[in-house]
Amino acid sequence: MSEMENAPGQEPPAGSQSLLRGLQLVEILSNFPNGCPLAKLSELAGLNKSTTHRLLQGLESAGYVTRAPSPGSYRLTTKFVAIGQKTLSSLNIIHVAAPHLEALNLDVGETINFSTREDDHAIMIYKLEPTVGMIRTRTYIGQHLPLFCSAMGKIFLAHDKPANFEAYWQSHRSGIVKLTANTIVDHADMLHELAAIRADNYALDREENELGVSCVAAPVFDIQGRVPYAASISLSTARLEKIGLASLLGPLKETARRISAELGAQL
């Protein structure tokens, strides 16, 4: 069932069908930064071309969609960036965490990421580019990160209830596949990994999502002892091997501790 479909026996609210279909097109187009042909968009949405074209015209007239350079293709406009920034600015956590993350960025000089969990993925809500070197990661604010192969995702799995982890593992089993030779896809191996994360208070992505890129993450706790956020440092594996993991762990853990303290966590 797609995110736009209703549960069996549920009817969508009156007048909402076009809205839901339009939002579905927006979600699909978000995966095609260079534009998506009308025929492909229609196919992915499960709509006929005339309906898809009508919805696109409405989104285009409102300034949310524009024609892409490739003939017959459409892409999202930067209007969504403005909306996204307004949404993020309304999240108090950004105002709380940003000064600490900026200090970490200046301290270690590497890419700094901050995420929260949304359903069965982590979502990037803040990112700072490196101040040293020229390597930039492909992550971006708003990006969905898989839980099983990202450092921040594994933080959320490690601090979730065991029953919730088992439910996640079973429901996503078909999608838990090796993205690289290092991706953990065995259930027992993942349980061992999560136990180590809880014991050491940090998680590693050892090129499990992308070759050449490593990431180390730490949990951010709230007043109830939950882990609603995670902070991480991303860098090339070659640079990590050069500077050593220890040079990053101390500053990262201290940053996560300071943000946690502002959220009322007793550490």
UniProtKB/TrEMBL annotation:
GO terms for molecular function: DNA binding; DNA-binding transcription factor activity. It comes from the Bacteria. GO terms for biological process: negative regulation of DNA-templated transcription. The keyword NADP does not apply. Keywords: DNA-binding, Transcription, Transcription regulation. The keyword DNA-binding applies. Residues 79-265 form the IclR-ED domain. Residues 16-78 form the HTH iclR-type domain. This is Transcriptional regulator. It comes from Pleomorphomonas carboxyditropha. The lineage of its organism: Bacteria, Pseudomonadati, Pseudomonadota, Alphaproteobacteria, Hyphomicrobiales.
